Amino acid sequence: MSSHILKNEELTLTFSDAGAELQAITDTKTGKEYLWNADPAYWKRISPVLFPIVGNLKNKTYSYQGQNYSLPQHGFARDMEFALLESTENSLSFLLESSNETLEVYPFPFQLIIRYTLIKRTVTVTWEVKNPGEESMYFSIGGHPAFLCPINPEDKQTDYYFSFDSNAPITVSKVSENGLIVTDSSLSPVIIPLQDGLLPIDSHLFDDDALVIENNQYHSVSLLTPDKKPYVTVAFDAPLFGLWSPTKKNAPFVCIEPWYGRCDSEDYNGTLENREWGNVLEAGKIFQKSYTITIG
């Protein structure tokens, strides 16, 4: 696997062909690192792309045109090698195409391009999904970047905060032990009030797995140090997103995950075409979305 670098006077980015994964965001001047380091004691990944599904399938399977298929959580793209498609002074583009291997578990021809663009202290991550086939294509896609928290070794994570672009209380869809959205109305959704517009990162915030936040409640999330200064901001147009850190591990990172799609619900009995928050792409068409990571 090859690695690649994008660099300017502010930030240095490191990438791998494996999953087209962004593996480091480093301050060029100070050497301070902002992304998680993939220590497998907590989590072996850094910022995988989630495709062609986001989250878990009910019973690990889905149905399409009368046939059942199986996919692992978050799909296969994060575990496949991409080709470097294009390199410019401030951007890198990676390509993954369908193959006999992918068609066995996901019966759609596709081209997935992931483009990273670095301008000053902002990284733009662009997903471009192309449907070269003759039928409509059904898919989900999402990001899963993990940011160091605490960012300073002398701090405690429980003194940090999330901030959002709205002060409205957060409506969270609860996730079951099987990684599915809880549909028991007495348990989900959960309403979390903000404190002066902030959500403290307490030690029990992720006891029930990820916080799944649907219905366009927010479009920007920042991580704040104990003195309430933002050091990472993720901005997106996605209709839903997740906040996550490994359950009850005291892991020194948190993820801010823009999603176009999510895991199935506990009561889901539909086909691939009817998955909640899924996307449909007609033959010959292109789906293009992006999100940004701003440091400082």
From TrEMBL:
PANTHER family: APOSPORY-ASSOCIATED PROTEIN C-RELATED, GLUCOSE-6-PHOSPHATE 1-EPIMERASE. InterPro entries: Aldose_1/G6P_1-epimerase, Gal_mutarotase_sf_dom, GH-type_carb-bd, LacX. It comes from Anaerocolumna chitinilytica. This is Aldose 1-epimerase. Pfam families: Aldose_epim. GO terms for biological process: carbohydrate metabolic process. One of its GO terms (molecular function) is carbohydrate binding. SUPFAM superfamilies: Galactose mutarotase-like.
